[in-house]
Write a structure and sequence with these properties.
Distance between the termini of chain C: 28 Å
CATH class of chain C: Mainly Alpha
CATH architecture of chain C: Orthogonal Bundle
Largest sheet of chain C: none
CATH superfamily of chain C: MetI-like
Domain ABC transporter (chain B): 4-235
CATH architecture of the largest domain in chain B: 3-Layer(aba) Sandwich
Number of domains of chain B: 2
Distance between the termini of chain B: 37 Å
Number of domains of chain C: 1
Pfam family, one (chain B): ABC_tran
Number of helices of chain C: 14
Helix content of chain B: 10-25%
Strand content of chain C: under 5%
GO cellular component, one term (chain B): ATP-binding cassette (ABC) transporter complex, substrate-binding subunit-containing
Structural class of chain B: alpha+beta
Shape of chain B: elongated
Largest interface: A-C, 105 and 112 residues
Number of strands of chain C: 0
CATH superfamily of the largest domain in chain B: P-loop containing nucleotide triphosphate hydrolases
Helix content of chain C: 55-70%
Strand content of chain B: 25-35%
Radius of gyration of chain B: 24 Å
Protein name (chain B): sn-glycerol-3-phosphate ABC transporter ATP-binding protein UgpC
Chains: A mainly alpha (293), B alpha+beta (363), C mainly alpha (282)
Family (chain B): Belongs to the ABC transporter superfamily.
CATH class of the largest domain in chain B: Alpha Beta
Number of helices of chain B: 8
Oligomer: heterotrimer
Radius of gyration of chain C: 24 Å
Chain lengths: 293, 363, 282
Amino acid sequence: MQKRVVFRSRLLPYLLVLPQIAITLIFFFWPAYQALESSFFIEDAFGFSRQWVAMQNYVELFQDPSYLRSFKTTLIFGVSVAVMAMSISLGLAVAANRVVKAATGYRTMLIWPYAVAPALAGVIWYFLMNPSLGIVAYWLKNVGVDWNHYLNGDQALLLVIVAAAWKQVSYNFLFFLAGLQSIPKSLIEAAAIDRAGPVRRFWTIVFPLLTPTTFFLLVVNLVYAFFDTFALVHATTEGGPVDATSILVFRVYNTGFIGQDYGSSAAQSVILMGLVIMMTFVQFRFVERKVQY
Amino acid sequence: MATLSIKSLGKVYPGGVTAVSDVNVDIADGEFIVLVGPSGCGKSTILRMIAGLEGITSGDLQIDDRRVNDLEPGERDIAMVFQNYALYPHMSVRGNMEYGLKNEGLPKAQIAERIAEAARTLRLEEFLDRKPANLSGGQRQRVAMGRAIVRDPKVFLFDEPLSNLDAKLRTQLRAELKALHKRLGATFVYVTHDQVEAMSLADRIIIMSNGKVEQIGTPMDLYLRPASRFVADFIGSPSMNVLDGTVSSDRRSLQLNGSHQIDFGTELPTAAGNQIAIGIRPEHLHQNTAGETRIELSVGFIEQLGADTVVHGTIAGSQSPLAVRLNGVQARDSGDSIALSCGRDQIHLFDGTTGQRLNWDNQ
Amino acid sequence: MVENRPFLTFLTHAVLIIGVLFLCFPVWMALVASTHGPEALSSSPIPLWFGDRAWENYSQLLVGGLPEAGGVPIGSMMFNSLIMALVITFGKIAISIISAYAIVYFQFPFRMGFFWMIFITLMLPVEVRILPTFDVVVKMGMLNTYAGLTVPLIASATATFLFRQFFLTIPDELVEAARIDRAGPLRFFWDILLPLSRTNIAALFIILFIYGWNQYLWPLLITTDESLYTVVMGIQRMVNSGESLPVWHYIMGTAVLAMIPPVIVVVAMQKLFVKGLVESEK
């Protein structure tokens, strides 16, 4: 993890890491510690006084049915986004990997949505599905589906799932394609000689060899759905109707900034931190990618 | 141009591994010194200590009578050529060669002059504006040498510079290197694991094993009077035949492990019953009975090399392996036996336990 | 491919075309909607082809300013986005490359400690420390400033790891040769390491530019002053504008404008982008 020959300098290395470490301490470690600390206090709305309440904020959270519902919503949301975005992109990657002609053209057309902000993806789908003038809602009405995400919570959740998955397809597509391209062609040819047809080859050779990529993407997609989609929800449904799309990150923000309940918001932050730490751990422990120490 | 003096040089790595211990050598101005030995013997560590890339644990290093132990590599007035060339990939050939001179603050005109001269010497003129990626292996190695030459250093250091090249190119560059040394008249310290390279290039060879110097001497010293069994085995191809045995009670013959006995016709310089080893180079065994010591070889297999033939087998009546190099094309079948003899002055004796050379009166 | 089956080839193209349609259609509709007036968008079904108000709508958006968006022209929001994206991108690259350099090429006390501190930031996204981070920014007086918008986002574990990984692949002999050529640590960094990192820097630039441009939560917290709004964040004001009905032709125009710069970057530098993305996640 280091060079055989290193430079001898007493001060220079510290100067070099200083900016990064300073920002890390001031804007990452200190606030994280603050969140941890204030999750054990109840503070009045003006910040004048606070009172040590030990685990009370946490206890209240887990007794609050709407918080528990948020947990469930987040889980449904995350899993749906991951499954939807990953299966679409796997299909596209497999197809793109077969194509010889126009491969670059297809790839270009498939990767650009990576650049679209989640908030914009949300807003555009919000428009497409708008009950009174959205074109998709109109088509749905023609086939007998009465779409109104302003009133129907399930439909609102579906809306944000579709928008979030739509934006993530490009990212997954690129990784699946890279994974497919790294499978040695000789393996596929050997399987063909062993009389495995294309479908059988995919499920017995290609898909198992893609497992590391799939697992890596699963974790990345869940992290994306749990955290990066705040913008998507905030710019569109704002958690509604009646909390139907109120995922955990949105709730942290809402409780803290709108509801001004610092203690509860901090406790929620700490729970989320635990979630990220767990997922990062899983990613590094079981997916042998990234750094070696 | 300079002398290089190494006094009780030692290197211990953090963690306690001793890489090099107690190396002493005085290198004369203009000398071509080759450090040779198997991998891990400490030869590269010595070179890197001379370069300043590796700290010195004990002992002194002097270039031109100035102690340089604590100087930075750039301050020692040395130049180094690396095995993998270590050319800066983003700089042109010219850029690579002038980088050190620029850092030194040399005037532009002088830099240009030195590069022109080095490029001429190394036939690199037409490549000066190319990037290393667009050069062949041999050309890259020449650029690496050019980078060293332009610095006009006191000492040139070479770390296995020819190892990454194919055999033919290696021979060619070896000759060029020898010519270059003659022209520059500079002090060269050269590390290699290839004994042929060492023999053909060196004024003196330092042969090492396990962090210790086994012998320092001219190539012919090492070939004719190897100081230890290790040196005897390392220098020469095919390797010297080394046979272990016990000195007989009259001290005139050696009882080989097995039952065979070799007679010398004279007393061995060691006590009866001692374990010793004798060494005979394959090329010193002849197909006649003129020599004092006679051995019969039972043929195992042969290697036809054209100019000569190497016959491998065992000493008849024993399991001791023996190889002999015979002139010209020789046809032999497995199981044949060949009567061989060897002059006594071409038999080397080594102590059975320490492996050190034993001298006897005829040498 | 292994064998030639016309049906499979047909299926392959069909899948890809459907995929392309699925990804492109929403943005197509946004483009179309942004060229119509409010009348065309007031009743269903809305038109599927362009209208004639493109010029009017976009010029109004870019320079005129909308009451729904706080009266700030989208042009000025885009300028803010650009500043934010560029400062974050260059800031992240700069501080990451020098910290990776220190960690790989120097031996000093707490080296691994610093490495782990940077690593742990991966586990602390803004979203989980919203309020206290906001408090820190308030205390430092950085609310409604460009510094507040950018500096707290500049730490980057991903970029640091990428550079570290790259430095480890550079042969040791290169730094040794440089030392013999009298290059000190700073000169080695500047003359050798930085030029060799060009491709990595460029690839990282694309990913970080998109990251910076697409920031939402952070500008939402840090800016209350409309003149500092960024375009990705600003659009939500128009969508959820309270009493009045959303002005969809403007909203879609804004969405199109907001996605143009990052999409151009991705498409124009596709090769670098793919390399950078796949490698930075390894």
